[in-house]
Amino acid sequence: MRIIHLIKGDIVFQIKYGFYFLYVVFTVLYAFVLVILPETWQETVASLMIYSDPAAMGLFFMGAIVLFEKSQRVLNSLAVSPIHISEYILSKIISLALISEIVAMILAVISHHQNLIMVFIGTLLSSFIFSLLGLIVSTKIHSLNQFILWTVPVEILCFVPPLASIFIENQYLMVYPMTHCLSLINGKSQNDLLSILIVVIMLVCLWKIAVYMTKKMWKSVGGVHL
To answer: Which of 46, 184, 193, 195 has the smallest C-beta neighbourhood within 10 Å, fewest atoms?
Structure first.
């Protein structure tokens, strides 16, 4: 299947350019911090680490990936190939989610997290959302500095409300989709199925936007496949 080959290609790219090495280093550092913390803090701190880094890595790295593909004219080749936009997007978000899940599960085990299944689900959904947001922004930028600038408001919207919900009880914060992502990861969701449903609805909306924006980007380099 084309999608399998695309995912393998993205993983090889990520290994070649140090994504996996970088997260080996980060994982060791995070694990060290968790080990020296009091046990009563470990699960909460691990959840914050997972949400703010491995789960969110797609937002941070998607710009570099797409800019590289633009500079190497990879997108020009993809735009006139039989590859569909949905396959291109899926390969990106799945390959990045793989790194996210590996790091997240290691941190969850070290912190003795009580619900590893919800950590897995929460990290997977969060990773997909952050990667789609990163891809949407990447379709409109032409430099890394521009990408960093454009992602600042996205980071504020994705991180401030969920983090605030830990310290402030507010009904409006609890209907915010990204708050539910963090709640799933830290095991504090009052209704897991409802939280998953809210996050999936947001994910579907972002998917449609990402497909539309990627289609426009592919058109600009010479072709499009639905």
So the answer is: 193
